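INFO worker-7 received task bundle
INFO bundle size: 2
INFO processing item 0
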Amino acid sequence: MVFASNHQIPMVVHNGGHSTSGASATEGGIVISMTKMRGVVVDPERKTITAQGGTVWEDIDRAAAPYKLATVGGTVNHTGVGGLTLGGGYGWLTGRYGLTIDNLLGATVVVADGRILKTSETENPDLFWAIRGAGQNFGVTTEFIFQAYEQKNEVYAGLLSWPAQCLPQIIEFVNHFEDDTNKGDMGIFFGFCGAMPPGRVSIVAAIFYNGPQEEAERQFDPILKLGPTINTAKMMPYEQLNSIQNPIATYGGRKSFSGAFVKLPLQVEFFQELLEDYGTMIKTYDGVSATAVLFELVSHKKAIQVPKDTMSYSTRGPWYNVGCAFRWEDPSLDKIMRETQRALMRKVGDRAGGGAHARAYANYSHS
């Protein structure tokens, strides 16, 4: 969130520090840190989770686990609850339950004139409409109330990596992602990275299945039988799920995050071209191999059932997010890395975006 006072002093709100626009910090301005507001209350009878404004998704996942409950949260568990929610919120459970904002029951917002407002469908409904999808600049949200769901079973999930020559088979697999066998219980984030293993351009994926291992391995068999060079997939408690991408979403270094949309089916030839672009960049510049480009497939069928005018979130549609995390160490590369990233995401959106009416998901829209 970014505000300006009467004296034009910038003011930002810091929650998890994942803001893609850099709005978690400011030079010469005021930072409102929410990081000590980490309380979570679970009501197992009403199946609700109330979280303070400084929580990260790990706080919610761990608080709900003893009650065998979960809600739609971020796929990196040190992401702030506030930022992700106010921008829309995709998670591994989106296929079953929709976006995070589709499961937001209420919130408490401190607005610019100092008033503390409760918001819900029945209380300050206009503000509630606004904060669900375009809410970062309407005030400081100090509390969220989420709908929770039973999550009694463990899930199958992990990170995988293949040599670059496996790209055509991976594309063939994901092009069948939304067939009749996908009931909203599976997801795959796949793409390119030069750090799994280090120093080699590989196809990487984070996979998820909300069910038994036998069913999961049957669903993912076409890519499992390719013989991944790295495979950490296993059954795990739900509260561990949102940590599987933490190894490729670490703190430190110089970063720029951006995004685009893609629509199925994906064209192998185009993705081979993207892979070559990525490989050229890794070879050209030192210290950039941790850069990752991930195409994030979680079923959108449930999310697009919600009418677009229900809340301010405006990019529901039959397309998938691209998360592009550029990482480098040398300050002299700042400009070229950002320019390269913007060019890459424009290329993806123009040629694989499938007519999406926006360039990117709101939480990924800054570079």
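INFO item 0 finished
INFO processing item 1
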Amino acid sequence: MALAPTTLLGMGSQAQSRLVDVKLQLKWFPQAQFAGYLIAKEKGFYEAEGLNVELLPIGDQSPIQTVVVGGADFGNTWITDLLTARAQGLPVVHIAQISQKSGYAMVSLKSSGIKSPADFKGKKVGIWPSGNEYPALALMKAFNLTTSLDTGVTNPDVELITYGFDPALVFPDKVDVASAMLYNELNQIVGLGYPLSELNVMHLPDYGINLLEDLLFTTERVLNESNFKGSGQSGKAIAAKLVKASIQGWDYAVANPEETVQVVLTFCGATCKGSGSEADPLKHQTWQMAEIAKLYQAGPTLEGNAGLLVPSVYRANVETLKSLGILSADPPAAVVDYSVWEMATGKSAPTG
């Protein structure tokens, strides 16, 4: 039985009052992108760990600030957001890597003749704001393309057009290539009347750009709590329980996609919909669940190590951001705390 949408903000029963209250800030509105957390809430996995988890939708903002100022205890974001925030002195800490493969893509019409990033020269490329453009910039740098965001470049190879997260705003009339997540905007483009057979989808990992996305994070303050919210448990112990139940939720969601979509539809409201012919909420969330599952079921997840941030992949992400000048130095070691994942899984994280 699906919970009513209001339970996204906590169930409030007498039994719940004995649980430890935890606020988890999502990066966007509830949708299948966050299916594992919704399932962990719906199926009682958080409750089984002694947690009353409140899932907070945020919309077009960064969850970093919400967590840093104490509006939430934990958050969900992308690794670029986390590392750049840490470089700015914010004490955020990575505790689990849920998505093991980037879902970022660049999309063009086949009729445009743009088959690969090498064909971007002289074209207009749509990007997103607020740090979400970094994967696209890394891709163009890998192909030695200058852009209109490069300082001191008078005749850039590529003109970048910044737009909100709706491809209908620009594609294909105002840009030749649009940024798109495989699990969301790609389906929206299809809904605008451009079937996959007419699209060239350039998945960034295929070109060596795999800046990781969905992860769980918190702050040093939370992890250093000796008595989290008077629970008698440390902040690190609470973090480990959150990670354990979240992974359990993701495993269940991926194994039971049809049931999971029905749960998601209970929560996501207007954000359930795609665009045009794909505006049917069930159809769009089914697409999203199928694609988001592929990003979870990759890398260490396939080896039984869901939630692990592979050290070599992390280093590659850091080097990519340094090459763009987004990071000027390696982040401090404290930006990743493997001990939380180890407590959650009972396993040892690799050291190299």
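INFO item 1 finished
INFO post-check item 1: The radius of gyration is 20 Å.
INFO post-check item 1: Residues 1-16 have pLDDT under 50 and may be disordered.
INFO worker-7 idle
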